[in-house]
Amino acid sequence: MAGYTSMGDAQRRLSDFLSYFADAVSSQDGPSLAPLFSLSSNSPYFLSLADALDVLQEANRVVKQVDKYGQLSEILLPYLRCVQSFRNNHFVDAYNAFEKSANAFLQEFRNWESAWAMEAMCMVAYEMRRLAEMADRELAAAGRNPEKLKGAGSFLMKVFGALAGKGPKRVGALYVTCQLLKVYFKLGTVHLCRSVIRSIETARIFDFEEFPTRDKVTYMYYTGRLEVFNENFLAAEQKLMYALGHCNPHHEANIRFGSEALRRGDLRLLRHALQEHEDRFLRSGVYLVLEKLELQVYQRLVKKIYIIQKQKDPNKAHQVKLEVIVKAFRWLEIDMDVDEVECIMAILIHKNLMKGYFAHKSKVVVLSKQDPFPRLNGRPVNS
Q1: Taking a C-beta distance cutoff of 8 angstroms, is the pair 105, 15 a contact?
Q2: Do 50 and 83 touch, CB atoms closer than 8 A?
């Protein structure tokens, strides 16, 4: 029968997994231990282990009877239940079991002086978040309160606390911070980001350049999004440009258009990209962030007009006719009348993206002769 697992095969698969796990811990082999927690990968290895657990009725007895698994039983027993539940698409049960296993692993991790298990701890943090998301979808579909992602956030804070000391484990702190930021953005509780961001950006024990590039890019991307929400456009631009400049070249196209539109003051480019990739940006949760960049793009467009006028007649550069801005929009194939442009200019002045006032009778924006386009510091992300 296709897919049949005999009792002998099941016992062998379970014994092999337990031996791999125990050996990795005893030899402090982090690269071998980490993949053993990669549950959501749906690898053939985990599928076969889950099949074995479905056949066996004595996994608990096997773990408890073998001496070398004794101290690991609090990690292994709930983890095996998690593997079985996950295979059967019972994600709430899988999360609950994984949470017990993860807390037991965290306790052991705290006792290990070196950072040999850092890769495994990061894998546990990642799987906790992923399982929580799956469990919450299952709860919501059943009409129940989706609460597991909030619980995952609490666990990740405990992990962060275990990494934030002065020892070698601190190198994993930024990865866990990124997982926390993803949780808080998903829950819509971005204000909870403040404490971990403050820890990373103000604590002397962290040297940002020590962290892996992957984690630095993710961190700058999410904190850049926060700066946009806070209308701190200068800091947002700096962080998002850092993420762009250091990201994987294969992913660069996902964010290059927004930076390019910002640099060029090209509203047409921004709107076209938002429309073309709307579904993708909505799924990834960045659409509203990119929409907010429109104000910055408007500012860049007016600044370009100002620079051109200054080259022609420095004495009148600060007097920008609304009709000229209307023509610039039309050149970008964006149809706006004078009243709409006046409204946009009023918003820019109100947001302090532009300094000046209106001469309503002559339909002119009179820009300040001193620093008409201030580089905003805005509200800091942890205010």
Answers
A1: no
A2: yes
For Cα atoms 339, 345, 350, give the angle at the middle one, nearest 5 degrees: 125
What is the distance between the alpha carbons of residues 357 and 353, in angstroms, rounded to a whole number?
12
163-197: b (≥16 Cβ within 10 Å) or e? bbeeeebbbbbbbbbbbbbbbbbbeeebeebeebb
Q: Give the closest residue to 161 by CA, choosing from 213, 130, 199.
A: 199
Name residue 74's amino acid: E
pLDDT digits (tens, 9 = 90+) for 319-355: 999 999 888 878 777 777 888 888 888 888 888 888 9
Neighbours of 367 (CB within 10 A): 22
CA 39/CA 47 separation, integer angstroms: 10
3-state secondary structure 219-274: HHHHHHHHHHHCCCHHHHHHHHHHHHHHCCHHHCHHHHHHHHHHHHCCHHHHHHHH
Strand partners, 357: 366
Q: Dihedral of CA 341/342/347/352: which sign?
A: positive
Measuring CA to CA, which residue among 46, 32, 45, 35 is closest to residue 123?
A: 35
Hey, what long-range contacts does 20-29 have (CB within 8 A, 24 or more apart)? 21/72, 21/76, 22/68, 22/69, 22/72, 25/72, 26/68, 28/112, 28/114, 28/116, 28/117, 29/116
Question: In this predicted model, what pLDDT tens digit does every residue of 87-133 receive, in sequence order?
Answer: 999 999 999 999 999 999 999 999 998 999 999 999 999 999 999 99
